[in-house]
Amino acid sequence: MITRFLNPKNDLTFKRIFGSEQNKDILIHFLNDMFVRSTNPIEDVEFIKPIMDPERKELRVSIIDVLCKDLEGNKFIVEMQCAKDTGYIKRAQYYASRVYCSQRTKDFEYKDLKSVTFLAILDDLLFPDKKDYMSYHIMLDKNTHEHDLQDFSFSFLELEKFNKKPHELKTMIEKWAYFFKHAEETTTEELAQIIGSDSIIEKAYEALDKFNYTFEEMELYDNIERSLDAYNTLLKDREARGEARGEARGKLEAKRESVLKMYRKNLSVEVIADFVDFSVDEIKAIISAS
């Protein structure tokens, strides 16, 4: 099925929708929706140049997709994570802390530090044991559960756990989750159902309309898609090779254990060799190593 919409998880489209001045109203609406800020809503944001990490040559790329602050100076990190990353939770905390520390100026006072909110949309599972597709993480007093340390919060939208259909979408969070997961395949009929009276969702879809992109932009979009596919394929190949090696090691350990069990029952190495695919010398080496 061919539709007119591009993939919102692509770096080009994601930053056009959520990281550009022309669509700043989408980002503001999105943040208020994701954090259900009906009271004290975010009214405006200012984009900040994303952090560049100079510490390692291979990591000298933009780490954060969107970094902005509200009128009070509170900072928001919005990140789209498509590739598998076993260290993602640690990385999220690391970059949130770096954004927090970046507020330090020559004459700053600690009391003036503003909060950092990290929001990630993940095209993968992050917390496989959690049922909910949306999770919010804050620091609480272990005994009283009071929220005394309020300057850090982390929220994660795990798209793989989201399985609702267009007619089942009721909240704005559900509509955004569907947008990220299914925008490419959304039909005209489904679009009317999804949008309803939400003009911002409609504008987000319009920002994905491939007819609004130049030939050069579409080439860049396709290159990003191919690069991500190649990277994920590489990861899958590595995982497959790792599983194969692990299985082979497991079989080898099982055979070695069998050798030792037979030896403990006073069977000779020659007899043991008849039962397992090891030479007499290899069996002697296993026994000696034990």
Explained architecture:
The protein is an alpha/beta fold and 290 residues long. The chain has two domains: 11-213, no CATH class; 251-289. Helix content is 44%, strand content 12%. It contains nine helices and six strands, in the order ααβββαβββαααααα. The protein has helices at residues 11-18, 24-34, 88-101, 172-182, 188-195, 199-206, 215-264, 269-275, 280-289; strands spanning 45-47, 66-70, 75-81, 116-122, 134-138, 152-158. The chain has a six-stranded mixed sheet, sandwiched between helices. The longest helix is centred in the C-terminal third of the chain and has 50 residues, at 215-264. The N and C termini lie far apart (61 Å). Residues 54-63 have low confidence and may be disordered.
Can you lay out the helices and strands and say which pair or pack?
Elements: H1 11-18, H2 24-34, E1 45-47, E2 66-70, E3 75-81, H3 88-101, E4 116-122, E5 134-138, E6 152-158, H4 172-182, H5 188-195, H6 199-206, H7 215-264, H8 269-275, H9 280-289
Parallel strand pairs: 3-4, 4-6
Antiparallel strand pairs: 1-2, 2-3, 5-6
* N-to-C CA distance: 61 Å
Count of extended strands: 6
Number of domains: 2
Structural category: alpha/beta
Strand content: 5-15%
Write down the overall geometry. Answer: elongated
Largest sheet: 6 strands, mixed
Give me a quick take on this structure.
This protein has helices spanning 11-18, 24-34, 88-101, 172-182, 188-195, 199-206, 215-264, 269-275, 280-289; strands at 45-47, 66-70, 75-81, 116-122, 134-138, 152-158.
Name its key features.
290 residues; alpha/beta; 6-stranded mixed beta sheet; 9 helices; 44% helix; 12% strand
